[in-house]
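Contributing new complexes? Match this layout with 6-O-phosphoryl inosine monophosphate.
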Amino acid sequence: MAAVVLIGAQWGDEGKGKITDFLAESADMVVRYQGGNNAGHTVVAHGREFKLHLIPSGILYPEKTCVIGNGVVVDPAVLLEELAYLTERQVETGKLLISSNAQVIMPYHRLLDGLEEEARGESKIGTTKRGIGPCYMDKAARIGIRVSDLLDPEEFEPKLRRNFQEKNILLTKVFNAKPLEFQPIYEEYLKYGEQLRPLVTDSSLAISQTLQAGQKVLFEGAQGTLLDLDHGTYPYVTSSHPIAGGACVGAGVGPTRINRVVGVAKAYTTRVGEGPFPTELLDETGEQIRAKGHEFGTTTGRARRCGWFDAVIARYAVRVSGISDFAITKLDVLTGLEHVKICVGYRAGDEVLYEFPQSQKLFRKCEPVYEELPGWSEDLSSVRRFEDLPINAQNYIKRLEQLTEVPVTLVAVGPSREQTIVRGKIFED
Ligand code: GDP
Ligand code: IMO
Ligand code: MG
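Output block (do not edit by hand):
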């Protein structure tokens, strides 16, 4: 039995898709446990690039079962489009399962996401406007529509009517927008239900049976630690739990079943959307990293903000998720810099902090305290063994291990599956 949780250790876009695809080779099942199509994962396999939003990044292996867990918010139109996108590219999607308890993103969620952002004005969050926040709001308010409801008109109709009453008041009276019409949406979503019916299952049971049979399960987090609703840079966060604990709730698996937690982090840091970011580089070096790392969002196309690696954040991610192994991605992007910097603490007034502060007011005031290491100029993209990396690149990784007290088991030096340096096993035999 082996269960591994893979999470983003920063603000998302760490390369989780690539590392999931890499580790999926050793797994039997890959499970998404939170978030929705706010996620955008680029996976490059056999020289082909795939962009995934909702479907687990294990889907490129036809023999692996992929699961969309109960903690995910599902936009059915997006899911069907993604299935069609994969089919067009000759990817078999026959082994995809969806939890009957996953929440459904409805048109009013998408509308409200946009209207709420507009109303926030200067203090906007910079959401992806995919309806994620409003959908999770309804889940917590216990009025959400679940995937199982789409399969049962008797359940769906009264639930949707109740939502329509409330949402149309919100749309017209609070946001001065047009009301939505019940019937076309009701019929459209029943159709989606029929299309998705063969995939819908009790996913917690399917996962448990897989583990009981001695098979390997990989739980794939979306977003990242600092976007976690409780543990992130609130309110500049998403509305779910990307940390490792989220896998237990969002997949229906107990914490004692989890063997390891892989934290994926870039060799530097990026962030999309608003919110504090102490190591952000607003200079030429930031531009250089953005250009070389192609740091533009997979979902919204927005330019990602870039900065140095932040070891305070990495240690915080280790704490809240119990990270046992790091996968450091995009080391190749730092090639050509004379020096590389690592943030080892924060200066806040007269104090230097070594722990991520609880107070966001304090975090906003934090200035990074840097350690500078010599850079390297060699191209890393074809390196496959740690010993073959330039010594300064090796030392950079070793310093990250010292600062986080966690081994860096995987190092990525390019977007492709094979551009991965392996220093140890993640899945037990
Ligand atoms: P995710 O959301 O965490 O899956 O990350 P994204 O897919 O949004 O962003 C990571 C980007 O970096 C993608 O375009 C990947 O193809 C790419 N990538 C991943 N690992 C590496 C790497 O080691 N080197 C380079 N150059 N690109 C990488
Ligand atoms: P992956 O899985 C990076 C950010 C948005 C915004 C905040 C809230 O590709 O790493 P939301 O639409 O979730 O309500 O937006 O969270 N965000 C992400 N940033 N990567 C992601 O996913 C993200 N998903 C949401 O930019 O700041
Ligand atoms: Mg992404």
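Reviewers usually confirm one structural detail per submission. For this one: The pocket of magnesium ion (ligand 3) is lined by residues 12-13, 39-41, 298 (CB under 6 Å).
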